[in-house]
Design a protein that fits this description.
29 helices; mainly alpha
Length: 651
């Protein structure tokens, strides 16, 4: 029976596709007396096919479709003939037939209307309508992918990246798809991809979309900063500021334009501070604050403007801390906290305001730690952690709150380490690592979570090494390095990942040196220096890379001294001091650079004939003390330097 049904379907199709032969066959059947066959054969064939469950084989629809195929093929042939072009070959005809059939079978009414237009000879109108429908379908699909991206953004980096990439491929008209995709690339550690997507979006942007152009310059600046190209980042931020200045001048009453300008000043300050230009950074942050103060004064009830002012105070505090003005920094951080406390009190249920207050406590803790007030710092860090524990408990699925809590555990661990409580520090670091491990497992594509886990291994290694557990420390440092190597391999152009890998090599070198493996330590220190030499050569104006290189010289000098290579050690320490003196000369107000000078002098003063005396070391320390820049933990070094200088003078 099934075979008879298949024959009936085949016959039905044959009848529809061969109308002339059908007529001839039916006339023969009629002359032969098969009048019923003449009237009933198509219906009988189709009924038989449907009766055995082949309902999809609807002969009437199939016949109409084949008629449509034939009509459109005829119209295409007529068009080609009218234009004097060659007729379709077999492959071309088959392609047209397939397109018509598949479009018709889809059953979309608008597309069916378009095919009817083509069949009636209105080919261009039909194709335009099909294209219009296709674009509309793409837009609908893009919006679906965009919504997936929005949902996945906070929880699944890989899925969100895929979704925004699909949305951007389907509909490139919205630059914010590129902006969010770039941010996701950066989060995943692929800075090159983040930069590429932002640059492509900028190139495709219409001239009139000025604000979006400014935002894309800002995104490019962020990517360049992450890759270590601070000059390029500064240029991008300045392009952003030029647009923000123009928009703000055109509409002085537009608070959003004014805010964009303040953000641009802020970003320029970050780039200048990272490059060691302390004064330039401070000037940029103060320009930012001037706008923030004006906006907050114009609308005292606007919590967002108040928050921006709090951030400005905090940034100025960061710049002052970098310059060694701990009192000024503390005052700025407290001004930021006063605003954060007011906002949090006004809206106790606002998690963002609560988080801002926790950040202020952390900043104050940092300033107190630098001033030698460990108890005050620990109290501040614990106040921050109390807020973060509450936020994390309220929303256990919020990865950002969880990460903040891990940062608080690390800060408390640092303070406990500094005060000599190694067991307490180790417990805090392990609490931080437990969170980091969970976050990294939840979102394997998130490079920040991976990096946090590597930092936790690093800190645990420090605590174990300080406790005398060299093997445990070495295992922790190697776990740290495994992550750092993977991140650096994923994005070879990412300067931060490269620097992290150099730090891992250094820590392993420290552990090997402490265990007596001088050759292994020296090999690790040289691996770190190779990375740092490359970074410093790529960006000669980058003070951080230069300082890192100087520290590698110091480590190698110490390892060579252990091995009895006095001349090699002396050369390494001289190279260290040359960089330290150059940095200090470039920025005389920078406390860290000044400290590096006396530390270099200290090491060289131990060598007979090095050219550096203990009197010079003491003078450098006394100069720092005179300007209030000598940290309390460094006070004993001044006493020792004075004593050594006096001893040498008496000899």
């Amino acid at each position: 029976m099934h075979r008879i049904a298949e024959d009936a379907v085949a016959l039905c199709r044959w009848l529809a596709r061969h109308p002339l032969l059908t007529v001839l066959a039916l006339l023969i059947a009629f002359v032969g007396g098969s009048r019923a066959l003449f009237y009933d054969l198509p219906e009988m064939a189709c009924d038989m096919a449907q009766g055995v469950g082949l309902a999809g084989e609807t002969c009437g629809e199939d016949a109409e479709r084949e008629e449509l195929v034939a009509s459109i093929a005829a119209q295409v042939a007529a068009r080609l003939a009218a234009e004097g072009r060659a007729p379709l070959d077999a492959e071309g005809a088959a392609s047209v037939e397939t397109a018509v059939r598949e479009t018709a079978e889809a059953g979309d009414p608008a597309e069916a209307e378009a095919l009817a237009l083509i069949a009636d000879g209105e080919i261009d109108a039909g194709l335009d309508k099909l294209a219009q429908e296709a674009r509309a379908a793409e837009a609908r699909a893009a919006e679906r992918w965009r919504n997936i991206g929005r949902l996945a953004f906070p929880i699944d980096t890989g899925r969100a990246r895929e979704a925004y990439a699909k949305a951007l491929a389907l509909d490139g008209s919205d630059p914010w798809d590129a902006i969010y995709l770039g941010r996701l690339h950066a989060r995943a550690g692929d800075i090159a991809a983040a930069l590429a997507v932002a640059e492509a979006a900028l190139a495709a942007l219409p001239a009139e979309a000025e604000r979006d152009r400014g935002v894309l310059h800002n995104e490019i600046g962020d990517a360049l900063m992450a890759s270590g190209d601070r000059d390029g980042a500064l240029a991008a931020y300045r392009a952003y500021m030029a647009i923000a200045e123009r928009l703000a001048a055109q509409d002085p009453g537009n608070a959003e334009w004014a805010r964009d300008l303040s953000v641009a000043h802020n970003k320029i300050g970050d780039a200048l501070r990272a490059s060691g230009d302390r004064d330039g950074a401070l000037a940029a942050y103060r320009a930012d604050m001037a706008i923030a103060e004006r906006l907050a004064a114009q609308d005292p009830g606007n919590a967002e403007w108040a928050r921006d002012l709090s951030v400005s105070h905090s940034k100025i505090g960061d710049a002052l801390m970098a310059s060694g003005d701990r009192e000024g920094a503390l005052a700025s951080y407290r001004a930021a906290m006063a605003i954060a406390e007011r906002l949090a009190a006004q809206d106790p249920g606002n998690a963002e305001w609560a988080r801002d207050l926790s950040v202020s406590h952390n900043k104050i803790g940092d300033a107190l730690m630098a001033s030698g007030d460990r108890d005050g710092a620990l109290a501040a860090y614990r106040a921050s952690m109390a807020i973060r524990e509450r936020l994390a408990a309220q929303d256990p699925g919020n990865a950002e709150w969880a990460r903040d809590l891990s940062v608080s555990h690390n800060r408390i661990g640092d303070a406990l380490m500094d005060s000599g409580d190694r067991e307490g520090a180790l417990a805090s670091y392990r609490a931080a690592m437990a969170i980091a491990e969970r976050l990294a497992a939840q979102d394997p594509g998130n490079a920040q979570w991976a990096r946090d886990l590597s930092v936790s291994h690093n800190r645990i290694g420090d605590a174990l090494r300080a406790s005398g557990d060299r093997d445990g420390a070495l295992a922790a440092y190697r776990a740290d390095m495994a992550i750092a190597e993977r991140l650096a391999a994923q994005d070879p152009g990412n300067a931060q990942w490269a620097r992290d890998l150099s730090v891992s090599h250094n820590k392993i070198g420290d552990a090997l040196r402490a265990s007596g493996d001088r050759d292994g330590a020296l090999a690790s220190y040289r691996a770190a220096m190779a990375i740092r030499e490359r970074l410093a050569a790529q960006d000669p104006g980058n003070a951080q890379w230069a300082r890192d290189l100087s520290l590698s010289h110091e480590n190698i000098g110490d390892a060579l001294m252990d091995s009895g290579d006095r001349d090699g050690a002396l050369a390494a320490h001289r190279a260290r001091m040359a960089i330290a003196e150059r940095l200090a000369a470039q920025d005389p107000g920078n406390v860290q650079w000044a400290r590096d000078v006396w530390v270099s002098q200290w090491r060289l003063a131990r060598f007979e004939g090095s050219g550096v005396t203990w009197a010079e070391v003491a003078a450098s320390l006394e100069a720092m003390k005179a300007r209030g820049a000598l940290a309390p933990p460094d006070e004993p070094f001044l006493a020792t330097a004075r004593a050594n200088a006096a001893t040498r003078a008496a000899e």
